[in-house]
Amino acid sequence: MIDLRSDTFTIPDYEMRKVMASAPVGDDVFGEDPTVNGLQEYVADLLGKEAALYVPSGTMGNQISIGIQTNIGDEVIVETEAHIFQYEAGGPALLSGVQLRTLESEKGEIPLQKIKDSIRPDNIHAPKTALICLENTHNRHAGSILSLDYIKEVGALAREHGINLHCDGARLWNAAAVTGISPAEYAVEFDTLSVCFSNGLGAPVGSCVVGSKELIAKALRRRKVLGGAMRQAGIIASGALYALKNNFNILKLDHENAVKFAELLSESEYIGIDPKAVDTNIVIFRHSDKFDTQQIYDECMAAGVMIIPFGINTIRAVFYHQISTVDTIKAAGIVKDIFAKLA
Ligand SMILES: Cc1ncc(COP(=O)(O)O)c(C=O)c1O
Fold this sequence. Notes:
Elements: E1 2-3, H1 14-21, H2 34-46, E2 51-55, H3 58-68, E3 75-79, H4 83-86, H5 91-96, E4 99-103, H6 112-118, E5 129-135, H7 148-160, E6 164-169, H8 172-179, H9 183-187, E7 192-196, E8 207-211, H10 213-225, H11 234-246, H12 250-266, E9 282-286, H13 293-302, E10 305-306, E11 308-309, E12 314-318, H14 325-342
Parallel strand pairs: 1-10, 3-4, 3-5, 5-6, 6-7
Antiparallel strand pairs: 2-8, 7-8, 9-12, 11-12
Helix pairs in contact: 1-11, 2-11, 3-10, 8-12, 12-14
The protein binds pyridoxal-5'-phosphate.
Pyridoxal-5'-phosphate (PLP) binds next to helix 3.
């Protein structure tokens, strides 16, 4: 089976497992797990921030970040297709009592004027705009990379209005690997970032929230409230540290495979895809009403390729280090043949 459903299907390789098995550990709720402490310092450094906190998931990382930078009744600006809005089960309302103001964009970069127009006036009738969230890379916009210039503009706007800026950086590593821009450069404008280790980097569990010492002290408390404080977490944190040090460069190859896959699919008259629009490891392609997405999915599955339906007439495929170039070429051939057979 060639499983292209998500880069969360990466599995820890043998070397990573060996490192995890022998990781020094302690009780992290007491702040005494040396491996967790080491990971947090390493990640804070990598992103050029004062502190980091290891959390069980990217979702918790985002939700903690929202919670520590808002008050009940506040409003958070977020892109319409953002993970925070689409896939976090209403967490901002449930956990932080905030409402989301969703704004549309082409590829994850909400037009600046739209953000400006959506910042609430200081008025007793309006909620307070407390936070702006960006997502880099942007999952539902096919792993698109937000440009540094754009991030700087949003950062300046946020500062001008005294609004904090958060980055859902679940796949920030993919952006850095492809562009050569360091994670720290990408992070400059943000007050907080949430970065994942369990996507393309291939660690089994965890994310970090990164920011100032003051914000991370608040995050520590909030993680406890959410039940995310773990004990001998060094065993999993060592997988994350190993992934950061050893798997970062693989992300470039994942991008190359994604482009290859898109190029091959673009040879089919039945598939809508622009290979030049593939920024990182995610490929989103479309088909006409003539085809049924569920049938395409079922046929691909029967032929040994797993993909994921991703909206009306839309399918997603994601590349990661257990997907070789040979698998990529084979999978593209299978998908193309199925479209041709069903046409
Ligand atoms: C953009 C984005 N943000 C956040 C997450 C959440 O990560 P987790 O599944 O660890 O909660 C994901 C998951 O893949 C994601 O794609």
